[in-house]
Amino acid sequence: MMSQASIDRTTGPSDNRVSEHAAESTFREVDDSNRAIPAIEFRDVTMIYDGRKVLNNLSFKVMKGETKIILGGSGCGKSTTIKLVLGLLKPDSGQILVDGEEVTNYSEDQMTRVRKKIGMIFQEGALFDSLSVYENVGFKLHEQGVPEEEVESEVRRMLRFVNLEDAIDKMPSELSGGMRRRVGIARALVGDPKIVMFDEPTAGLDPPTARTICELAMKLRDLEDVSSIFVTHEMNNLDYLTSEYAVVNEAGEVVFEKEGEKLCLINSKVLMMRDGQVIFSGTDESLRKSDDQYIHRFLRGH
Amino acid sequence: MNIFTRFLLELQEMSLLVARAARGLFRKPRYFGETISQMDSIGVGSLTIIILTGFFTGGVLTLQTYQTLASYGAVDQLGYLVSVSLVRELGPVLTALMVTGRVVSAISAELGSMVVSEQIDAMRALGTDPIRKLVAPRILALIITLPLLTLVADVVGIGGGWAVSSLLYGLPSTMFTNSVRDGITTDDIIGGIIKPLFFALLMGTIACRKGLKTEGGTVGVGRSTTSAVVMASIIVIIADFILARALQLILGTQS
Q: B127 contacts in A (CB within 8 Å)?
């Protein structure tokens, strides 16, 4: 399944306006052979913590190139879900599949291999305090023993992606909250993972910075064909991610367009959780039409 | 869960932590740089407090025992008494306790803060095992530096004893040094080095375990640091007794 935004560029009326460079970066060749296999799949996952069911028979799929927005109040099991994907926690029952591979009972060593495919963005950035921005972003490459010149060029490329190249020599304590999250995103994207987890990346940020973080997620989804889980409880994140898509314009710049008559986004789905259970799964349009009282209150705040 | 079950569970977790850290030492990537920097902060960083502790402990030993020895007419045994007390007992235990206060608390607080700010999870998510990267170098650095610090404390302590005996009581230097040389045996020195090896292993394991299982935000960091220091101090004292008895049996020395 190709992202709908990209399809629109090939068939839409604006097609002839796309420069060669833009077309090249937008339409990266995609290996279609195993796109039917979900990037992430949960099958009846249950997790008990301190005698309480944090997750109760949770099942869902995230297809390749799709962004799954997980909504829910605090403590409903959202963050636990993405930690389970990475094997940072282990479920009490059920199965977890990453790229069709069952990872439920993998040891820490086996998980290390799986984690290479996945990038994770933590709530507060989770930067290593004792390391500079450069060392934080280059952490994975330094651990793999990659030569210093390659590390530097990759770190700079990633920092350019999040628009923070100037901060390369700073320490995490010198950065603002939003900058820390962006460095966290750059660090998670080293090695171009095809699956990315966002754990409430915009919590506590001012609206423009939160918007920037959402734009990064949209760029990954629409231009890099990344599958992702985006955990949030902020409604404006949901609006951005389900109503806009990233494209490259004639000048080679990334711009964001609203879905409308010419395109309907199908690569963003919503999953709503409550007390460790899925209470809604589908598109944002059907979420807004839902009769459920809890969903109503959640969307409107009253 | 009763206390006994909790104790066994904790013991199991600590043993597994040590086993995983030990396995990590023999596999790539190896963290030599990390170990060296830990040795620097643990060993070199603790040198000042160890020198001060050793010097004044040796001094006070002389101060407290001189009169008693003089009343028995055994002042010529002063060096023997001071050096044996230091090398067998006070050197290893006091060094371990001082390092516990300075290093165990620091390790536990550092790892605890990394847990609550999700840095440990981030490290695992980036494909690095925190036990190999953080735990193994710290325990290894403690095992290497604690015996060396103990030796420093012993030597400086004997120096402190000598200083007090000759400067305060006017005892001839040769009488003190001869009694040190004649009194102390190789077994005493070996025993005095074996003890800190075990202490270091116990202290490092407790510090890392307590730090890594921190829960409950910054309050939790304080809690785990306190409990690491308390537990390490008590375990050092208990282990000292067990080791002293074991060394008596193995080396045939009498306390």
A: 112, 115-116, 140, 143
Q: Does B121 contact chain A (CB < 8 Å)? A: yes
Please tell me the distance in Å from A123's CA to the nearest CA on chain B: 9
Phi, psi (deg, nearest 5) at residue A96:
-125, 125
* Structural domain harbouring B206: 30-251
Residue B21, domain member (yes or no): no
Q: In a 3-state reduction of DSSP, which class is residue B181?
A: helix
Partners of A269 in the beta sheet? Answer: A68
User: Within a domain: residue B5?
Assistant: no
pLDDT tens per residue, range A86-135: 988 899 999 999 988 899 888 888 888 888 889 999 888 899 998 999 99
Question: Does any domain span residue B237?
Answer: yes
Within-domain flag for B25: no
Any B CB within 8 A of A146 CB: no
Quick check: B116 contacting A, CB < 8 Å? no
A–B interface: beta-carbon pairs under 8 A: 54
Q: Are A33 and A254 in contact (CB under 8 A)?
A: no
Residues 6+ positions from A279 with CB-CB distance below 8 Å: A272, A273, A292, A294, A295
- Cα-Cα-Cα-Cα torsion A80, A82, A88, A94, nearest 10 degrees, comes to 80
Residue A199 has pLDDT above 50, yes or no: yes
Peptide bond into B29 cis (omega under 30): yes
Domain ranges (residues) in chain A: 4-26+38-117+193-300
CB within 8 Å: A112 and B127: yes
How high is the pLDDT of residue A18?
A: 40
Whether this prediction's pTM lies above 0.80 is answered by: yes
Number of other CB atoms surrounding residue B248 within 10 Å:
14
User: CATH classification of A4-26+38-117+193-300, choosing from 3.40.50.300, 3.40.50.150, 3.40.50.200, 3.30.300.70?
Assistant: 3.40.50.300
Residue A113's closest CA among B124, B18, B166?
B124
Q: Is A42 on the interface with B (CB under 8 A)?
A: no
